[in-house]
Design a protein that fits this description.
This protein is mostly helical and 78 residues long. The protein is built from 5 helices and no strands.
């Protein structure tokens, strides 16, 4: 599927089309992963990066990789 969006010219001049596409794909993948809509491997695929790069992007964007509280973790270990 292809989605088209219209951006003002002054925004497009800041980056190449490829850079904009990468940023949009990455941002959407991070959002979907953060909200539990897709797995980390699917998010990496959507962002068109390997899983290690996606994990780095999660860290850079403060998106938790493991969504479990300290209490849940301690409860599981007993």
């Amino acid at each position: 599927m292809q989605i088209a969006i219209e951006l003002p010219n002054d925004f497009v001049k800041l980056q190449s089309i490829q850079e904009i596409e990468h940023e949009i794909r990455l941002s959407y993948a991070l959002w979907l992963f953060k909200n539990g809509k897709i797995t980390i491997s699917k998010a990496a695929k959507l962002a068109n990066v390997d899983i290690y790069s996606f994990i780095s992007e999660c860290k850079r964007n403060e998106v938790p990789i493991i969504n479990i509280t300290k209490e849940e973790l301690l409860e599981d270990s007993t």
